[in-house]
Design a protein that fits this description.
Helix content is about 40%, strand content about 15%. It is of the alpha/beta class and about 475 residues long. The chain folds into two domains: about 300 residues, P-loop containing nucleotide triphosphate hydrolases (Rossmann fold), CATH 3.40.50; about 50 residues. A six-stranded mixed β-sheet has the order 9-13-14-3-15-16, with helices on both faces. A five-stranded antiparallel β-sheet has the order 2-1-6-7-8. The chain is flat. About 35% of the residues are buried.
Length: about 475
């Protein structure tokens, strides 16, 4: 009997211990979730102004000896790019290392269609890949990159300067009808140094995204025979290519859990304000989303959200692949690398277009972004030193800005920077014809005045005019 009581007491104690263990685990999970949310909120509140805001010194705390913004150990920063005879670009020199009053390393390339924005990103991607990897893009594609005019087809040259710490390295890529001009390349006196820099770049995060970046259940086998490093660039050259790490979103497993955790944190900073809430992944499962209280898979997201989530997922996956998988820091602020992004605000609502770059500055402060855009909402997110405005009418091929764009309204950006009337084309044509009796009603409408009120204003105006005329006639 005593033995039975002892067994019951032992069982009760074990049950209580188990319950306490479950409770402790649950409380620990809640605490971790609370601390993670606090960290996300801290990042969201972070100012995008550089510490020296308003002063000449700008890209963050400068190095005391060189005056340059310090970079995390072992990372490379692109400082300049020179292009000769590539597609529609005859000659162009660009600098990506000018002082900015905002945090982060950003360059935004703007210009009309056909000005060469995408070509600049492609040129930079190719010279960073280097001669051994760029040939995986295919000789036919490389041959199409050559400049063609009535005078013939011209060999092309791409040159970039990259900085690692205080050391600068030149990268040079000559192209001809056969692809890479190996003879010219090997004759360069710094060829061995360039080979060494290209090998080092393979250990860094370099990702490129074209305007049609996306994720789909369709498995595209066309680029399965190229290296992973080149796969991460192919959407910039092939508009039908899927994002390289789409499988991480569609078929997440335990191996992908660190990248998914980083993506979860990143999206909370960048997209949560838009009502798109990423759900906490469980046990290496797929990332789910909630919008307007409805659960959604990544494939069911609106185009703009899906495209943005896709490239961010690929960036997080590339970071964890390079940084050691499960050993890598899951905090997005630890990510380093170079991101080339065509049409950064594509398919996004203006509210997110306006907020995207500032939020990315907070979430990814040590990533170098080189992007293109047509959007005045996006352009308003940059210091003038970060903007490269392509202009074929100038000797340099670019336009120097003499004022800060982020201080302008959207209408000002349209009219002054983009040389486009912010008014409606329909209204402008009506004004030219001046035959529509409703024209005045249209002109009086605004965000504060609806059609009925506009008619009332016009009637009041006509009455006042009639009254004044009658007084004139009486006098």
């Amino acid at each position: 009997m005593l033995s039975d009581l002892g067994s019951i007491e032992l069982a009760l104690l074990l049950a209580m211990a188990g319950a306490l263990g479950v409770l402790a685990s649950y409380l620990l999970t809640l605490l971790r979730r609370y601390l993670r949310q606090r960290e996300i909120e801290r990042v969201q509140r972070r100012s995008i102004r550089a510490p020296g805001y308003g002063k000449r010194s700008t890209l963050g705390q400068p190095d005391t000896e060189t005056g340059e913004k310090p970079t995390p150990p072992g990372t490379l920063v692109v400082e300049s790019l020179s292009i000769r005879n590539l597609r529609n670009i005859g000659e162009l020199d660009l600098c990506f290392a000018r002082d900015s009053s905002l945090v982060g390393r950003w360059t935004c390339i703007a210009g009309i269609n056909g000005a060469g924005k995408t070509t600049i990103l492609q040129a930079l991607c190719m010279v960073l890949l280097g001669s051994d990897l760029v040939i995986e893009l295919g000789r036919v594609r490389l041959r199409r990159m050559l400049r063609r005019t009535a005078d013939g087809v011209f060999d092309a040259e791409i040159e970039a300067v990259v900085r690692q710490g205080t050391e600068r390295h030149r990268l040079y890529l000559p192209l001809n009808g056969d692809g890479v001009d190996e003879d010219t390349l090997r004759r360069q006196p710094d060829f061995d140094e360039m080979r060494s820099t290209w090998r080092f770049l393979r250990e860094q995060v370099l990702v490129s995204y074209g305007a049609s970046r996306n994720v789909s259940e369709y498995k595209d086998p066309r680029h399965s025979n190229v290296s992973r490093a080149v796969q991460r660039q192919t959407t910039l050259f092939d508009p039908l290519t899927q994002i390289a790490s789409g499988d991480v979103l569609l078929e997440a497993d335990q191996e992908a859990a660190p990248a998914i955790e980083t993506l979860y944190r990143l999206l909370h900073v960048v997209l949560a304000s838009e009502g798109l809430i990423p759900e906490q992944p469980k046990g290496g499962g797929k990332l789910q989303f909630s919008q307007h209280d409805a659960a959604m898979d990544v494939l069911d997201l609106p185009d703009g959200f899906r495209s943005t989530v896709a490239w961010m997922a690929d960036l997080c996956t590339a970071w964890h692949e390079r940084a050691g998988g499960e050993k890598a820091d899951v905090d997005p602020t630890a990510i380093t690398g170079i991101v080339l992004l065509d049409e950064v605000g594509l398919h996004l609502h203006p509210s997110l277009e306006k907020a995207l770059v500032p939020q990315l500055r907070k979430a990814l402060p040590t990533v170098q972004f080189i992007v293109t855009t047509h959007s005045p909402m996006v352009l308003s997110s940059f210091d003038r030193s970060e903007l490269v405005v392509l202009d074929a009418s100038t000797a340099s091929g670019t336009q120097e800005l003499d004022r800060q764009v982020f201080g302008l309204s959207m209408d000002d950006i349209y009219a002054w920077l983009m040389d486009t009337s912010p008014g409606s084309q329909v209204m402008e044509e009506m004004l030219e014809e001046s035959s529509d009796p409703e024209l005045a009603v249209y002109l009086y409408q605004s965000k504060d005045v609806d059609e009925d009120r506009a008619r009332e204003i016009l009637e009041e105006r006509e009455k006042r005019i009639a009254k004044l005329r009658s007084k004139v006639d009486e006098s």
